[in-house]
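Q: what sequence does this backbone want?
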């Protein structure tokens, strides 16, 4: 067995995963369904934005050369109902925010800077262009609105819709299967027999995978039986990405790696220098990426964030797959581990414009209930000695 010091690091294991992860190709997506999707091609604006010169204020559209002075009000321009005439010398048009600036006018005087005077208004001096949003001041028709390779959030979806984009090309969402293995596993809510536990990993992994954009299928768990394990894994290898939970260690009932080998999967690595999550296995079977995650629930959670989520993102074409480390500071001193980098479950709290991270009590890899109060994973690099309180560290949001 490879000594711990010779196992791939977190960074190296991630490199090995991404080197074998290729985008699945594009599909057309309605803009109404595009939130969270990854752009496969840069969409361009269908119209100028704004498509016309519009008012930035409620007020009066005027010719700047006529100000200051008294102007005769000749009409009104409202949003969606433009003034049909032309603003001539000595004239003003009542205008609302977002409405078309009439032909002839080149400025807007805010309503709070006028005085009513019979059928006219007295206005202060304004410069040409004041409070006018020029046509195409945001983007020109045909110009790129958002780059390929990004995830579409609210601001991008809003910008695309405003620019008249009805459909976008996005990376296809990967079909992902999850299989929990173990004779001791039972469905939550059922009665437990001696030595049995409730199966939770597939539910947690399904939530993680869905949040990364995958189309998730949770398989029924299988006992430690070679034929049942082989049948389930065979079905999983028909998908884009397949995750197993448990059965990747070296015990007599750890069947997953052997079955994968029998089915033609090429194992790229087994075990990583990380705590928890060391016994993670990564294999490739034809076009299917296979992750054998440890059965301990926290190990499974950590391995997913480090290796599986980046693969799901890369399959959809994200230009910069995670993990996305954030800067923080330790709220307490922690001891380094000599052989492996360690991910500590922690609470992240903002204090004096910095994020301080407090590890939760009970860091053993089977203690999933303790993880319920954690909202961060703190990276403590391997080494000797102590990482002092307030030392800078990197962390992942949970």
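A:
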């Amino acid at each position: 067995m490879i000594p711990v010091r010779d196992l791939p690091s977190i960074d190296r294991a991630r490199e090995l995963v991404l080197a074998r992860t290729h985008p699945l190709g594009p599909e057309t997506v309605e803009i109404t369904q595009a939130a969270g999707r990854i752009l496969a091609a840069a969409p361009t604006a269908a119209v100028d934005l704004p498509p016309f010169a519009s008012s930035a204020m409620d007020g009066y559209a005027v010719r700047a050369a006529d100000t200051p002075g008294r102007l005769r009000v000749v009409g009104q321009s409202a949003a969606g109902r433009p003034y049909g005439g032309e603003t001539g010398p000595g004239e003003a048009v009542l205008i609302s925010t977002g409405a078309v600036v009439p032909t002839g006018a080149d400025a807007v005087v805010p309503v709070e800077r006028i005085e009513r005077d019979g059928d006219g208004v007295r206005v202060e001096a304004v410069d040409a262009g004041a409070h006018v949003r020029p046509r195409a001041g945001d983007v020109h028709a045909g110009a790129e609105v958002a780059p390929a390779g990004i995830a579409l959030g609210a601001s991008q979806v809003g910008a695309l819709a405003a620019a008249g984009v009805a459909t976008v090309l996005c990376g296809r969402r990967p079909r992902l299967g999850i299989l929990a293995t173990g004779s001791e596993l039972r469905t939550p809510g059922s009665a437990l027999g001696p030595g049995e536990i409730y199966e939770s990993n597939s539910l947690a992994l399904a939530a993680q995978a869905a949040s990364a954009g995958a189309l998730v299928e949770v398989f029924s768990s299988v006992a430690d039986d070679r034929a049942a394990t082989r049948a389930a894994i065979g079905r999983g290898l028909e998908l884009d990405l397949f995750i197993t939970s448990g059965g990747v260690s070296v015990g007599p009932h750890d069947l997953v790696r052997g079955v994968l080998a029998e089915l033609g999967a090429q194992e790229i690595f087994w075990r990583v220098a990380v705590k928890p999550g060391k016994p993670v296995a990564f294999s490739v079977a034809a076009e299917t990426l296979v992750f054998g995650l440890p059965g301990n629930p926290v190990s499974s959670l950590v391995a997913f964030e480090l290796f599986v989520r980046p693969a799901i993102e890369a399959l959809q074409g994200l230009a910069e797959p995670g993990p996305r480390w954030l800067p923080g500071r330790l709220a307490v001193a922690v001891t380094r581990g000599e052989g492996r980098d360690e991910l500590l479950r922690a609470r992240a709290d903002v204090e004096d414009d910095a994020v301080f991270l407090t590890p939760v009590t009970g860091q053993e890899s089977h203690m999933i209930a303790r993880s319920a109060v954690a909202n961060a994973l703190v990276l403590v690099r391997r080494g000797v000695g102590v990482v002092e309180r307030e030392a800078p560290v990197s962390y992942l949001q949970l």
